[in-house]
Amino acid sequence: MIKKGMRRQIVLHYILVVFLALLLVEVIFLIVIRTYYYDSIYTRITTQLNQAEYFYRVTSRDSPISLQELLRSFELKDTELQVLTLKGDMITSSTGFQPDRTITTSDVPEAVGGGIGRWVGRQPGTNENVMAVSKVLQIHGRDSYVLRYVTSVEGVNADLFNVTLISVSVGIAVLAVVAAFSFGLANSIIKPLNNITAVSAQMAKGKFNARIKGDYLYEIGELASTLNYLAEEIVRSNQIKDDFISSISHELRTPLTSIKGWSETLISGGYDPEETKLGMSIISKESDRLIGLVEEILDFSKLHQNEMKLSIGIVGVKELLQEIILNLWAKAEKKSIRLVLEAEEGIYVRGDANRLKQVFLNLTDNAVKFSHEGSVIMLSARRADEEKAEIVVQDSGIGISQDHLNRVKDRFFQVDSLNGGTGLGLAISQQLVELHGGTMEIESELGKGTRVTVYLQLAEPSPEVETMGQESLPMPEENHDREEGNT
Fold first, then answer.
1. Strand-pair category, 388-394 with 449-457
2. Organism's domain of life (predicted)?
C-alpha cells in the first residue's frame, strides 16, 4: 500500500483516468462487436426470408406440398425453419417435428403487424440462446402464414465471451504498464521535491549555505533555482546588514565620542571663550551629523513601508539646482572643486521640492565626496522630450567598477566604506525618484567618473511660479566668476 502523499495521488489519479478510459473503450467495443455479429445473423436470415416469400408468391400454390417444398428449398444450416399460423400455432418445421404448441415470442406479433419480427432469448424446453426472425407470407394479397427462422447464438456468445476475455486481459496489461509508468513519473517528481524540502528545512534552521543540487527540468528546476537564489540573497543581505551595523556603529561612535569628549572638557571649565566656542561648534556639528544619520534611516524605513508622504507642487528645476550648489559650495571649495550649472530656462516638474532637493543634494554630495581636487562637477537640465525633463549630475572622479555598479543602488551597500555613510543614500534617492514617477540611471567607468541621469515628468507652471522663477538665487561671489557663462 502506498503511503499518503503526492506519489499516491499521482499514481491513483493516473490509474483511475486510464481505467475509466479503458472501461469506456471496452464497453463500446464489445457492444459494437455484439451488434455486428447479431446483425450479420439477422441480415442473412432476412435475405433468406425475402427470397422464400418471393418464391412462394410466384408459385401461387396453397397446399401442404408447396409448404414442404418451401421448407426444403430455403432451409439454412444449423437453423430451424418453421411455418406458423397467424395466431402463432406451428404448422410444420424443417426439423420434421410438429409440437402442439403456440409460439408466444414477440417476433410473431411484430411479423403479423406487417414488419419483420426479431427476438433473442432462451428457447423454451432446451434453454438455449437463440435468435428468431419472422415474416408473414401473403397469397393473393392476403396474409396466410408466418415464416419463422430460429437459429442458435450459443457459438456467437462463446466467441463474444472470448473476445471479452481478451479485451479484459489487454486492459489489465495496459493498467499494469500505466501503473509502472505512473510510479516512475511520481518518483521523478517526488524525489526532487523531497530533496528541495530537505534543503529548505536546513535553510529554515539558518543554514543558508545549503544548496539544492541536481539539474532538474521545468517548474521543479525553476523552484530549485529560486530557492538557491533566495539563499544567496539572504546570505548577501545578512552580510550587508552586518556591514551596515558595523558601519553605522562607527558612524555613530565618532560623533558621540567627539560630543562626549568636548562635553567633559567644557564641564571641567578653565577655558577661554575661543576654546569654549570651538568646543560648542564641534558639538553642534557632530549633533547635526547624528541627526542626519537618524533622518536617513527614518526616511529609508518610511520608504520601505510605503509610508512616505509627498507634498506635491510645481518645482523649478534650475532654481532647485542653484540651491544645491549653494548648499555644497563650501564643501566643494575645500577640495577646489568647481560646481558648474547648465540648465535651460522654464523647466518645471511636478513633485515635492524638499524630497527632490534631498535627491539631488545626495547625488551632488556623492560627486563631491568621490571627485579629485581641482576637478569639475557638472549639473545640467534640459527637456529630453515633450513629456520628460533630463537632469544630470556628472563628475570626473574615481568612478565605479562594473561589479559595484550593479549593486550601487542596493540598500546598505557601500563602494568605499572608509568614506563613511550608511549606504542608504542612493537607495533612498532611487525610491524617491520612483515615487515621483521618474527613473534614475547611473553610468560610470572606473577612474574616469560617474554620470547620474534623472528623468522626471514635465509640468506646466502657474503664473505665480513663473514670476518666482525669474528671481534666481544669488551664486556665491567666489564661485560666481567661475560660473559666468555657464548658468
1. antiparallel
2. Bacteria
Determine the 3-state secondary structure of 396 from DSSP. coil
Q: Which CATH architecture has domain 313-483?
A: 2-Layer Sandwich (3.30)
What are the backbone dihedrals phi and psi of residue 128, each rounded to the nearest 5 degrees, phi first?
A: -95, 140
User: Do 6-158 and 313-483 fold alike per CATH?
Assistant: no
Does residue 42 contact residue 115 with C-beta atoms inside 8 Å? no
Tell me: the pLDDT tens digits for 460-472?
A: 876 554 444 444 4
Where in the chain are the domains? 6-158, 243-304, 313-483
HSE of 125, CA atoms in CB hemisphere, 13 A? 3
For residues 292 and 365, what is the distance between their CA atoms, to the nearest angstrom?
13
Residue 215 neighbours by CB under 8 Å, 6+ apart: 221
Pairing mode, if any, of strands 338-343 and 376-383? parallel
- Residue 458: helix, strand or coil by DSSP? strand
CA–CA dist 357, 365 (Å, integer): 12
What CATH number has the domain spanning 243-304?
1.10.287.130
Nearest to 97 by CA among 86, 108, 82: 82
Options 3.40.50.1000, 3.30.450.20, 1.10.150.20, 1.10.10.10; CATH of 6-158: 3.30.450.20
Give the other-Cβ count within 10 Å of 66's Cβ: 15
DSSP, res 83? E
**Among 82, 76, 122, 73, CA closest to 101:** 82
> pLDDT digits over 197-256, tens only?
888 888 888 888 888 887 887 888 888 888 888 888 888 777 767 766 776 676 677 778
